[in-house]
Amino acid sequence: DASVEDVDRVFRPDGGAMWQLYNTYLKDSLDCGNGGCRIKLNPKTPLQPPFIDFFSRLYKASRLFYSGQEPLVRLKLTVQQFNSVKKLDFIVDGSHVAIPVGKGDVISWDLRKSQSFKVTGDFEGVEPGEPLFDESKPWALFDWLYGESSPENRRSGVFHWVPSSGQRAPIPLRNGHPKDYKIEIGSGDHLLDLPSLQLGQCRLPVVR
Predict the structure, then answer these.
(1) CA atoms within 13 A of residue 151's CA, in its CB half-sphere
(2) Cβ proximity of 64 and 197 under 8 Å
(3) What is the pTM of this model?
(4) What phi-psi label fits residue 93: left (phi over 0), alpha (psi between -120 and 50 degrees) or beta?
(5) Ramachandran angles phi, psi of 31, nearest 5°
(6) Is 119 within 8 Å of 180 (Cβ atoms)?
(7) CB-based contact 163:83 (threshold 8 Å)
(8) Residue 33 φ/ψ region, left for φ over 0, alpha for ψ in the -120 to 50 degree band, beta for the rest
């Protein structure tokens, strides 16, 4: 896993390598904002579309990893009405956020300090506090986001979790229903689009 220092070197606003590249060579050609980067009407440099897409992914990752200048991930979670869920509880390093179905709240993950992330749920017909996720490591939040979830589509910001703990079949609840749940996730003033954060490789050439 990457260290906070690794993330800082690339993504830190104004000082990371991607922002140095943008400020030195790209700002006269790319507009970055409103959730991504787009070529300007009269760009100084005729950038290729694959590079624009790649840099837009870097930009989105930077905005996700930082709140201002601080390496702090802030996610707005809204629990969806699905599978008879009544409430989900999120525990970050012992700090507890309870979110009833249909409601939203914010959880924060400090890339410098946070070490543990836990999710439990209350479902109809089941004892409260059903364990859904529990991990202790610096990137636990992202293991939760990427590990057992899938986006409903690229625009809704709603993700569907089907915990399996490595098994082929989903883990069932005690009422016989699958132990799955859905959450809408927002980051900043945009809904989270996880597929767009998968950076991949920068394809050459960069310029036409």
Answers:
(1) 14
(2) yes
(3) 0.90
(4) left
(5) -105, 120
(6) no
(7) no
(8) left
